Amino acid sequence: MTMPVTSLTVEGVLRQLYAGGELDLPLPGSGQTLQRWTTLAEIASRDLVLARLAEGHADAIAILHELQSPAKQGIWGVWAAEPPSMRVEAKRTREGWFLTGRKAWCSGAEFLDHALITAHADDGRRLFAVETVYVKAVPDSWPAVGMQASGTLSVDLADAPAEAVGVPMAYLERPGFWHGGGGVAACWFGGALGAARFLLEAVRGGRDDPHALAHLGAVDANISQLWLHLEAAAAQIDADPLGGGARLRSQRLRASVEVGATEVLERVGRALGAGPLCQDPAHAHRVADLTVYLRQSHAERDLAGLGELAATEATW
What we know:
The chain is α+β, with helices and mostly antiparallel strands. It has 10 helices and 7 strands.
């Protein structure tokens, strides 16, 4: 079986993908959104850590394009988490913009080349491009087992030079913000797909008792339904990339994939028992990584937001 990417190899594999052009994905709304999401899903089906970093790079490139800022050569990330306990401040001087503070949950903190970072300025919340040589990773700030190899750490900035990307609130207010959420959902789907394939391989290899077959049937229906939802959402984005329904579409997709992926993990576990979780490193990492990755969703908070939208915009 293919071993998962580890902390010793993830940067090397990521740079191989970058050098080979495999991270040069079609932009959302370009007419090839499904191809973009399919590539992310296939990476995620093999390794979720690698997919998380690939998605971050691809999202950063799309953001820079949409906000008409140049993308420097190298691998990018998007560090936009805003927990209440941490805050990055931006100040403008005659020499330019400078960022100070601590930013949480920065994937690839120790090996990316550039990052798009949200920060608070006098004129509102802004997005900035920063070279990672100016940030300092905080050791031991990601004790989790899931996504451990992603190099996700908090980082400190102390008057780090930065370049403003777009006007205040441009990062959040563009339709592409919600298209990016679809890319994350594609990675969640890919993680579920990897788990589903693991169950399928086990059944084809002889683990075909009635209970395992029942779980496989449910997983098959689930994966097929999620794929149709991804196809439909991608087609809608390509048909109207600047349309006003981006948020509703994205939140529906993310909610569906979160529920579906969670069920796939549950059914694969019930079908195959503890053995693979304890004895198959690739599967054990996949389950741990996807469990953490799915919590990028805000659960009932996101569902409540979707409910507010549905109350006024649903046509069903």
